[in-house]
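REQUEST ID: PR-0412
SUBMITTED BY: lab tech R.K.
PRIORITY: routine
TASK: structure prediction, single protein chain
INPUT:
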Amino acid sequence: MKFTFLLLCIVFFLVSITLYSNTTFNWKILHTFLANSYIIVTNPLRNSNSTSVDNLTKQPLNQSIASSSRRKFAIFACSIHSSVQAYSFYTPITASSWSRVGYETIVFFVGDFTLPNALTPRLNLSRTYLKYVGAHIIDIQCNSSYAIKLSQLVRLFVGLIPDSIVHDDDDILTGDSDLMPLKASEYRPTSGTDGFVFNAFCCGSFKRREKSYRMFPS
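STATUS: complete
OUTPUT:
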């Protein structure tokens, strides 16, 4: 596991340098590398019926996902105004990682899309490759001043996602755009339960108004 983590860090470091030095980089080269490297990050769910959504008021660009079985979704978000561009950069890689362990992905992009050039070339690269790997994209319009805060909160309101994407009996897991699953068995729902919290005791507790609260990862 340590070797895999170190190898991932080296790969992502090299890829980051390559992509940020050339915004016209061909994402298919990256996909080919990931698909054939020692660390396989592929998308078994990618097909011609994948759906991408531009915002909550539009219909899917392609046909809705029809499924007779219970599906699993991983949801994460990032602000388009964040000064830390790694969050948006990692979104297609994280989406492919979730696909490798059996999850479809929904990615929220949060910010003021009415601003000139709100979607930079690098953001568009990430969004294009997200569609290529079959992820669903939902844009949340808000003022740029609180886009980062809203990107942290929007995952908690996944119940408002259109039923053309998520059904009532689907499993939904929230995460971060820079957190990538490595071991599929850690993310399998347990039979007879309604859900699970991964690494539940990671975050300690805090006090507010003389009461103590335990923090859980989102």
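NOTES: The beta strands are 72-79, 104-111, 136-141, 171-174, 205-208, 211-214.
REVIEWED BY: pending
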